[in-house]
Design brief:
Blueprint (H helix, E strand, L loop, with lengths): L1 H34 L6 H40 L3 E6 L4 E4 L1 H7 L12 H5 L18 H4 L4 E9 L5 E13 L2 E11 L1 H23 L2 E7 L4 E4 L3 H5 L3 H4 L10 H17 L3 E8 L5 E12 L5 E10 L1 H15 L9 H18 L3 E8 L3 H7 L1 H18 L5 E6 L2 E6 L6 H19 L3 E4 L6 H6 L2 H6 L1 E4 L3 E8 L6 H17 L5 E3 L13
Parallel strand pairs: 16-17
Antiparallel strand pairs: 1-2, 1-5, 3-4, 4-5, 6-7, 6-10, 8-9, 9-10, 11-13, 11-16, 12-13, 14-15
Helix pairs in contact: 1-2, 12-13, 13-14
Length: about 525
């Protein structure tokens, strides 16, 4: 390496020297023409020429020697100032020169400890695990064996004290006039870099392990909501591999009705630089719908420009199912699956609010089965429960989707109507028509089959046909009380009381009837429509 750096500087300086010599020769010809007469003897001319040539030769020799010394000095300074270790080898693998960085990195004091030594056997004899590394397999030597440039970053050199140092090295062939002379190698101590890379890998693995343990996958997406990174855990959550997700938007895997809400939340997070949490559904490759909870935050480049968002996602389908079960147990009757009192109260309040905005009437019907207790007494609670389930089914078949049928308790049910006419007389007609429809439908004969074996006592109480077929026929009528409402002229509890009072009036009038509640007259007597 030193020779080739010197040769470069020598060539540059020689160009300057020869240019100066050419100038001196031209000057000499001019001097001859001025100071030597044309009729001067040939001896005088030759004498002057010899004198000038000797002077010129001395000058050229002086300049060349000075140039060589300066160039050598410059080459040495360059080699010694480099942080990279540099060494050269001949075609036998013996070291021809080293620089100070080589000695420093590998722990040597003097170049004499290395020069003329077989460099592979000295510093490159073993792999990182201590196994032998034959010189015939050394990739550094391929530079002059195959006349190619070599770059390696996964090997070690060995220090003078026998400890390894991780290196990255480059090897270049050296040849002159078609003849291979050896190779020159430069190398860097990359121990700290390897430690940093290992620490980074450990940190990334730690994050992946924690995310996997939490059941989460990691994602990144650009400002167009297109995935740029997805971890392998996504397969367990979404059913798609990272390769199937990259280049696509998460919106593509959601039901249409979830996309608008998700887009609004994500874009607001990008605009406001805020963290977001959202829940949405995914459709897996098999068509299964799963619930996912996503946490994300915007991230930026060093200049503050928005790059995109990154975060985690996890499958919450089981949680959603449990939440649904808890909600259903809290708001629905376990036997009939109809809404219970609690949900009825919330729905009634919402209906009153709607009525206030729309100025339309609503109605609440209180229903009581007229002939239920004898069925329970005769056939037991199992059959009684079957009747209640069938009554609930018939109620739901009679009402609109915007209405609600609820079980109030025992054999009592409530039907809530909303969006009736804004005129009271028309709203009453609408409510009466639906009440009569319900009364008629629920009063139809029931054919119930008990799922449990009959005891001797229950068999003796049955009619012959019932005992033979196991099918119980029963007729059950309804007493219905109706309370009309609009706006918040009456509260929820007051409306329930009014409907209950109207229902008892239907009972007292002979049962199987529909009665409407009316405000008491000034005489304080109750008057029902």
């Amino acid at each position: 390496m030193r020779k080739y750096i010197s040769r470069f500087f020598v060539q540059c300086r020689l160009g300057v020297v020869f240019a100066g010599v050419a100038g001196l020769m031209l000057l000499f010809e001019l001097i001859k023409g001025v100071f030597i007469p044309e009729n001067a003897s040939i001896w005088v001319s030759h004498a002057l020429t010899i004198l000038f040539s000797a002077t010129l030769a001395t000058l050229v020799t002086f300049l060349l020697r000075r140039t060589t010394r300066e160039v050598q000095l410059h080459a040495d300074l360059i080699l010694e100032s480099l942080a990279e270790g540099i060494y050269g080898t001949d075609t036998q693998g013996n070291c021809t020169f080293v620089n100070s960085a080589f000695l420093h990195i590998l722990g040597y004091q003097h170049a004499d400890e290395v020069l003329s030594r077989h460099i592979h056997e000295l510093i490159h004899h073993s792999h990182a695990d201590g196994t032998a590394y034959p010189a015939t397999e050394c990739r550094m030597y391929q530079a002059y064996r195959r006349n190619v440039k070599i770059h390696v970053d996964d090997e070690v050199f060995w220090r003078r004290d026998g400890t390894p140092v991780e290196v990255e090295y480059w090897s270049y062939p050296i040849h002159r006039n078609g003849q291979m002379l050896g190779a020159v190698a430069t190398f860097l101590d990359i121990t700290e870099r390897k430690k940093a890379e290992a620490a980074l890998q450990l940190s990334e693995q730690r994050f992946r392990d924690v995310s996997d343990a939490a059941g989460e996958y990691v994602w990144e997406m650009d400002t167009n909501m297109v995935y740029s990174y997805v971890s392998a855990r996504a397969k367990a959550v979404k059913g798609y591999t990272p390769e199937q997700l990259l280049g696509h938007s998460p919106l593509e895997f959601m039901p249409q009705e979830d996309r608008e809400g998700v887009t609004e939340i994500v874009k607001r997070a990008m605009t406001d630089n805020t963290h977001f949490t959202l829940q949405h559904r995914d459709i897996t490759p098999t068509g299964e719908v799963v619930w996912e909870e996503v946490h994300g935050i915007s991230f930026y480049d060093s200049k503050g420009a928005l790059i995109g968002l990154r975060g985690t996602g996890m499958d919450i389908s089981e949680r959603k199912q449990k939440e649904h079960q808890v909600h259903h147990q809290a708001f629905y009757d376990t036997l009939t699956k109809l809404p219970n009192r609690r949900l009825l109260g919330e729905r009634l309040l919402a209906t009153l609010n709607i009525s206030e905005r729309t100025r339309q009437y609503g109605a609440l019907m209180f229903l009581d089965l007229d002939n239920f207790k004898p069925l329970n007494d005769r056939h037991g609670h199992v059959v009684g429960d079957l009747l209640l389930i069938e009554v609930a089914r018939r109620l739901k078949s009679c009402i609109r989707k915007v209405d609600m049928a609820a079980r109030f308790g025992g054999d009592e049910f409530v039907v809530l109507l909303c969006g009736l006419s804004a005129r009271q007389d028309e709203a009453i007609v609408q409510a009466r028509q639906l009440a009569e429809k319900i009364r008629s439908r629920v009063s139809e004969v029931y054919r119930l089959t008990s799922p449990q074996p009959d005891s001797p006592e229950s068999l003796s109480a049955k009619l012959p046909d019932e005992a033979a077929t196991g099918v119980i026929e029963h007729r059950c009528t309804l007493s219905i009380g109706v309370a009309m409402f609009i706006d918040h002229l009456a509260g929820e509890q007051e409306i329930l009381k009014q409907a209950d009072a109207a229902m008892y009036d239907a009972k007292n009038s002979g049962r199987n009837a529909v009665c409407f509640y009316a405000e008491p007259a000034p005489s304080a007597t109750n008057d029902y429509l």
